[in-house]
Please model this.
Amino acid sequence: MIFKDKEILVFNSIEQIIESAVEKWAGLAEKAVGERGRFTAALSGGRTPVNLYKALAEEKGLPWDRTHIFIVDERFVPFDHEDSNYRMINSTLLKQIEIPTKNIHPVITDENTPILSAERYENEIKSFFNTIKNGTPQFDLVLLGIGGDGHTASLFPGTPVLKETRRLTAAVTPPDESMKERISLTLPVINNAGSILFMAAGEDKAGVIREIIEDNSALPAAMVRSERGKLVFLLDEGAASLLA
Ligand code: 6PG
Model:
């Protein structure tokens, strides 16, 4: 279903979402490697994509030697901390596949402050994409989840990062004090991606999904707009249950 500039795909189960996401990944990877000799993907944390990463780890035929993995957002914790997105992505995917270490671009969180980590990550992205001054790097794929409050990446409602128009990364203090300090990609770089894939499952997401897709919502996830193609939402029936 196409709704404005969004493609909404609804599946009976998270397993079918994952099957579709693996297919899309394979198609995008093949195209990118064919055209540019490499495929760049930025991955989110959270629960929803865990089984996708495990499914991708089974796909030994994908061009992993030409694939570069970045992180959409990270918690300011050590890599071995249970909250680390890198730790989850590494255990479910990266250490299961033949991917060169130089192709893995985590957010280095052993800097003294989240701001220093964000700056270091921005420099890593800039040098990898070899961006001309003020150019915005273009990831082939950015994979996003949606929080119950409408956040995506670490772009939480009401945080200054939502106004960022120039920086590629930012340090973010989540509104919920119990949450760890974050480092996140910003909207300019997310919206510049070749493909943006939202994944959401479960009835508990139905309200926020409807608002993001159907209303002129100001929620962070509604501020994600693909400047280069279509925004694809992979939803299960629960998450899509309030869509008209
Ligand atoms: C994170 C993620 C975050 C996640 C949403 C949805 O660091 O936690 O990047 O943005 O995608 O919170 O999380 P679930 O997939 O667990 O619902």
